[in-house]
Amino acid sequence: MALISLEDLEGLDDEQLDDDITDNPEPMDEEERDRLLTHWQAVASTHQVSVPAEMTGPIQEMTRNSTQREPLPFANISRHEKMGEVLFEERVYPAGYWACVTRGELLYEQSISMGFMKLMRFICKENSAGRFLGMTVPVISNIHMMEDGNTFEKDVETAFYLPAEFQNNPPQTFDSDITIVYREPIRVVARTFFGTTNEETVSRQIRLLWEILGLRDDLRSDRYVVAAYENPGVPRRRNEIWFIRRDL
Questions:
Q1: Integer angstrom CA distances of residue 151 from 20, 86, 146, 173
Q2: CB-based contact 186:94 (threshold 8 Å)
Q3: Residue numbers of the domain that contains 59
Q4: Which residue from 90, 156, 165, 104 is spatially nearest to 129, judged by alpha carbons?
Q5: Residue 38: strand, helix, or coil
Q6: Does residue 25 sit within a domain?
Q7: What's residue 28's pLDDT?
Q8: Is residue 163 part of a domain?
Q9: What's the pLDDT tens digit per position in 127-166?
């Protein structure tokens, strides 16, 4: 069983929770903590993941700060539409520091769940700053393809861009599985899709975007990015597939 993912975490402020959990700044009492954990165990079970009791603290912290999400900055280069539908956008994301963790579980969705579990602890005070760092969106998953070009490698990197406050002085992690990495700017072709993210649905989106774009030597075909924005309580939640330009 894998652990909780970003998509599960973002569900903390959906209609399944009472507003008093997210709006009340006072510490939760034991009943509230138990109710929150029970809720997450129920949500996680539908995704074949598990939430251990020791995650209660980080979940509470993220719940209280669930409305404070900083969007990842980018420059929009172009937008391509057909009959009013946005087919794809081309963007440049800036250089900066990312917190990254790689897992290689049996399923893609398990790898990103396990990876984000570790990032969640880092965000919630298990860092050299000793405080809640804040959250940026989207959280991304870097996928590498096997030689056949159709199958995902088991190792999936889950990463989030450090909030602007910490870009000049990144906090250090206490978990050796997490690395703080400075990355150069990246130029991507991005297409929005809605629904769940697993190997089947992501593979379908990769094929679809290639059909739209046609053969292009300027785009990598050995690596893709999935960007997650919304929670699983939304029936048509927003994600993006990113194709990576070989150069800026």
A1: 44, 27, 6, 32
A2: no
A3: 34-65
A4: 165
A5: helix
A6: no
A7: 67
A8: yes
A9: 999 999 999 999 999 999 999 989 999 999 999 999 999 9
d(CA 6, CA 139): 7
Residues 6+ apart with CB under 8 A from 223: 142, 143, 144, 145, 244
Q: Is residue 13 part of a domain?
A: no
Q: What is the mean pLDDT of residues 203-223?
A: 96
pTM of structure: 0.84
Residue labelled with tokens 């909030």: 163
Whether residue 92 contacts residue 75, with contact meaning beta carbons closer than 8 Å, is answered with yes
Reading the block at residue 174, the tokens are 């206490």
Q: What are phi and psi of 62, to 5 degrees?
A: -70, -35
If residue 147 lies in a helix (H) or strand (E), which one and from where to where?
A: none
99/55 same-domain check: no
Which of 29-38, 41-50, 92-101, 162-171 has the weakest average pLDDT? 41-50
